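Troubleshooting log. The previous structure file for this entry was overwritten by mistake, so regenerating from the original sequence record. Sequence copied from the archived sheet and checked twice against the printout by T.R.
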Amino acid sequence: MLSKWKALKKTTRSNAITYAIVIVAYLIIQLLSGLGLLSSLFTGLLVPLCTYVILAVSLNLVVGFLGELSLGHAGFMCVGAFASAFFSRCMEQAIPASGVRFLIALIIGAVCAGIFGILIGIPVLRLKGDYLAIVTLAFGEIIKNVINVLFIGRDENGFHFSTKDALSLNMSADGDVIINGPQGITGTPKDSTFTVGIILILITLFLVTNLIHSRSGRAIMAIRDNRIAAESIGINITKYKLMAFAISAALAGVAGVLYAHNLSTLTATPKNFGYNMSIMILVFVVLGGIGSIRGSIIAAVVLTLLPEMLRGLSDYRMLIYAIVLILMMLFNWAPKAIEWREKYLSRLPFLARKKGESTGKEEV
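Regenerated output below.
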């Protein structure tokens, strides 16, 4: 058995370890939940935790492997969340089977976010560095503000649209307001579960890891390492940059679907889909190690659970949180820490990183 394991490719072993970590964590949490050892607060964080993991892994595809700084991930998440919530709210009576309805909502959320990723990516990916970050950040803010002024209702005459207020929809007495401006969408079916979240994480990992170890993935990383050299050997820069950006946006849309179907009321607030959300997702990627899929997962879990676990410490909670952020940054990026990890952790395959992974340059 051990010889067969060693005979597998290094990338295959690494991917198997990542999948195993997610599955083992799921089984442990299910066991603790069955024994009644999980608090209601921790249980309520499980679905958001899965959402953040998907967002971190998908953003790492753009930041870590494509080498572009994007701050519009919250915008793509918002598109997927509201598109899917709108569908589920409209079709709740027509499609009573929650599993089928949620699956269709997932597809709609991913497709809508992916389309926006393509539409935004075509002009935006001509930019680099800070300029790209500023434009993608503006996209996220525009999406949020557009939804906050959008009113959509439905009655026997069909759908009614307005950007003024709910009264200007001019619906009949039996009409139903679906999107109510800043109040968002109320009554979305709560179809998201921790099990569904874990399945979506595994699907996300499968898509991203297979992409980065494919021919297209090698082309994407070649563009990141040296754009001019990649273009000189015939790599279509626009094609592969747009591919990575669209896939990342679609996966952010999937995270938005999971997030939307875990809330009774979905609103486009700065906390949910604003600048701070995009920065938080970027923090997961940076602290976990740019280009490290496993690191993104660990960082998302730790930084999501830590503030809640320290809530009892009141005034010292955010101080400890900040110290942990600094320590994680030093552990991932300090030269001495990198040297120590390579020396002492290289014997532990589930802890060690592949050579170059801390800088996003994985061996393929």
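DSSP finds 16 helices and five strands in the chain. Archived copy saved in two places this time.
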